Structures are given as structure tokens and as C-alpha cells.
Amino acid sequence: MSTDINDYIVKSTSTEWLPLIEKGTHYEGIFVKSLRYDKATQRSKTILLKFEAGASYPYHIHPGGEELFVLEGNAIIEGTLLTEGDYLYTPPGFKHAVKTDTGCQILLVIPQEVEIL
């Protein structure tokens, strides 16, 4: 393990937003930046998501739970409006969809891959 802190810093403002494509499905209007990629599981466990106005992510389950922090804009989850500065912890097994009317940026910590329902 490296002891150089620079090996663990991600300059997210210098990183490009990439279209969100999971298992061959392109989620229109949603873009991603990886902050922490886990080589062992071959997936990002900490990400930034950017939703354009009107974008949505389908109903899904979080087998390992999730932590979500709204950085800007608003997100609607299970009929509840989350706005800038709101934090949501979803326990393992929790199911929901995400949509936004205005657009948003969200920080997500996702220990396990979600499953679309």
C-alpha cells in the first residue's frame, strides 16, 4: 500500500463527466465520475452522479446499502424531495428510484452493485 497521499486524491474538477452506462444500458441524461475504484470488485464504490433536468434512474435495490449526499439541485426519491445539503442513508435491501425535475449532482457511496428491478 502506498503511503503517498497523492495516490489517493482525485481532482474531480479535472475529470470529465462520462455517460452512465451499466451492463449495456445507457441512462439518458445521467453522467458519472468515479472517485474510488475498487480493483478487487472491478467497480467504483464512490461516485459523483450528475442528472440533467427531467432525468431518472429506475427502481432498484441496494444489496449493500447506500449513502447519498445532494451537492446541488434536487432529487426525488420515493416521493421525497431532497435538496442541496441533504444526506440519505439507505440500509441494505432498500429499494427506490431517483428522478429530478431541475437537475442535480449527488455524491454516492455504494458498497455493492445495485440491482435494477
From TrEMBL:
Residue ranges annotated for the ChrR-like cupin domain, each copy included: 7-107
Superkingdom, taxonomy of origin: Bacteria
InterPro entries hit by this protein: ChrR-like_cupin_dom, RmlC-like_jellyroll, RmlC_Cupin_sf
UniProt name for this protein: ChrR Cupin-like domain-containing protein
Species annotation: Olivibacter domesticus (Pseudosphingobacterium domesticum)
Lineage: Bacteria, Pseudomonadati, Bacteroidota, Sphingobacteriia, Sphingobacteriales
